[in-house]
Amino acid sequence: MQPAAAHYSPALPEARYFAHRVELDAAVAQVLAGGQYILGEQTAGFEAEFARFVGAKHAVGVANGTDALELALRACGIGRGDAVLTVSWTATATVAAIERAGATPILVDIDETSFTMDPAALTEAIEDHQARLQTEGSGLKAVVVVHLYGHPADMASILKVARANGLRVIEDCAQAHGATLDGRMAGTWGDAGAFSFYPTKNLGAFGDGGAVVTNEPGLADKVRMLREYGWVTRQVSSVPGVNSRLDELQAAMLRVLLPHLTVENARRRELAVEYQQSLAGSSLKTPQVRAGVQHAFHQYVVRSSDRDRLKEELRKQGIATQVHYPLPIHLMPAYERRLAHGKRGLKSTETIAKEVLSLPMSPYFTQEKVRAIVGVLSTCKDFL
Ligand SMILES: *Cc1c(COP(=O)(O)O)cnc(C)c1O
Prior knowledge:
single chain; 40% helix; disordered N terminus
């Protein structure tokens, strides 16, 4: 069997361009000829359209998803001397953003079924931290919840714990554009939602981009101020800020793509159903979707006790898979033994790190491509 080439299809960002080429080219040409390249009508237009899509009152475009998290935290007044709870099972960006804001991350274990923050582990981590607090004096201020792989975390339970402890809640929605929980979009549950428009995301630009969404006008104003040197009046900084702007070219292209997001997420869910069916009866654990959740399937992640051998077998059959992520944050050289966590440890995080495998997922796969992948999965049944 010819590996790879038989199932060749372009990577997601390129496929996205070809799927929407005419509209994207026109949008780019319009911006280039328009003479306004930073914070003009495209960015303002996208902010209004994205806020409406998510169901939030405000959206503020920034340079990338990491900045969206950092500026959301800073807008909440969080910085040096503060502690922020989050998960170790996430993209490095989540933890990097907390440290960039000046705060100290505290890691919480996940629920193995949804791969998202375990509310019981959150409660324990808060209690453990409060017991240490007398000596350390680092005040808990916020929780950054990650809707990993496109599955929303258990927001009702997490909000209850956070509110009882006076904590702000920021949602990391970098993998959850359009995901809903009880009919409400990811990003509208907490105080603010941070989105990334990195090219591989469900809503992806052709370069970097990000946004903060919120219903609090005060928070939106602060992010707006912080993203441009802390200006309220042009050229006069009211607070020390940064440069983190969504540019006009990216905003114009995002405006082309946003109206297609709902259909493209539905296409991801259809592919997930096909995978689920073709893997029925195998020993692989397929993704569970909690009641009330509409999954955005940024990734389709299965679990196998023999993950590395499975990855190699699929590679030989021409199917490229990925591991999200090879290491939890707390085991990476940059963070190892440096970050605090609750007393019970991060056992579920460490268990799933050895088992997860992301199967190919894209709304742009052709029927032939899907048939080829599903065919291989079905014939690999004995092995799986
Ligand atoms: C992609 C991602 C980010 C960061 O986004 P950038 O735009 O690359 O800075 C943050 N959190 C998670 C979970 C992500 O997947």
